[in-house]
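User: Continuing from earlier, I have the next pair ready.

Assistant: Great, send them over.

User: Here they are, in order.

Assistant: Folding the first of the pair now:
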Amino acid sequence: MSSDSQSSFVEATVPSPAASLSDVDSLPSSPTTSSLEASSDDGGDGEETDAEREWKESLQQLELLLTMVVVPYVGKYFGRKCAYWGWAKFMQWKYPVEIVVTSEKMFKGAGVVEAAASL
């Protein structure tokens, strides 16, 4: 009983150096920051990396703005416009009644206000 309590289900093995090197060789290589700095053409390494970092950050902020604000708002507007169009076509098919929009600007404005109401 005492030998069973001392044994565990996890075996501790020490990996051989050859096995760890083959594992590292199978990983994809990526350029390091020192190789990126060495490959630059002009001497402004610090300014270039700062500019590149700021450019990537601004692109990320622009992407967040588009995905979090613009795309949902535009999708909601056009989704409602499509739903209104589809509902009008269904109602004209089901009940032959003519629907007339008297003011196109008011109709579009109401769609924009209604889409923005829940944001």
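And the other member of the pair:
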Amino acid sequence: MALNLITPDVRTYVPPHPPLEEFIPDPDRALFANGSKSTLLAAASAIEEVTPYIGTELKGIQLSKLSDAQKDELALLVAERGVVFFRDQDITLEQQHELAAYYGKQDRDPNQQDPRHVTIIGRDGNIRQYNYYGGEFHADHSFEVNPPSYTLLRMVKTPPSGGDTIFTSQTALFDKLSPAFQKALEGLHAVHSADIRTHPVTGLKILNYNPSFIDRIYELNGQESSHILAFLREHLLQAHDLSVRWKWTPGAVAFWDNRSVVHKALPGGYDITLREGKRTAIYGERPFFDAEKSESLTQRRERLNAGKKDTAAHRSSEPELNN
């Protein structure tokens, strides 16, 4: 006989917070930044572009000491590069909350003792078993009506090896699709979001694919949807050139754009009690797609290169003045 799991406590349970309702967040702080990001970058002792498509490490900067102008420029750098890394940070948990609050309304997780942050721990076990999602690529809380925009993870302690995190650019994932396939995906909607979205800061098109939550594509028949989703999963898993693998150390921080980046921690093979981090995030805008005002990376590159050629041609055609 099956056990009755609907206990009186379950029947009378009242959620600690009201249901999430869509709201319009304050303007993204990246929109207030100086495009050159000179105030932020001048404070760094070194700047390392970790991979061509995603990831920049800023050295010699303490997040706890940033001015408001530098915070805005950091948001812009994160929007442009997907994820920005730091090491040896002295920022406290309360300062981390304050930094998150600067960028917007904090995403809350009712499963946590303090819903303002999530405590990240190590994972182990059989990561290849059926329905194990601990090692899957994902964007945090993408099922929410206002999914997070910026996310910051600070590691408190780390094992000597293991527990790295891989970040993959969904902006580049979309760009690497053929133009015909890009066009086919535009306007489709998955179980909880559009397949393609527009980044509100960069104006670039993003593949909005979260394998942990997408069940089907509404506009397609069953087999069509299954084959498209299988391809997108393969496309993501083969994107080694569009990804960065970050090795954690105590006090290291990753600050990423949850709208344009998916990530996964590599579980197993280490003492999971040695891995602990604190993650904060802020609510972003409801995902949207604006076909008229967004472009792919390749389209932007071609447009900018054409503009440079036109400028050079104009200058070469100007008559020389006799001095």
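Worth noting for the second one:
The mean pLDDT is 91. The chain has eight helices and twelve strands.
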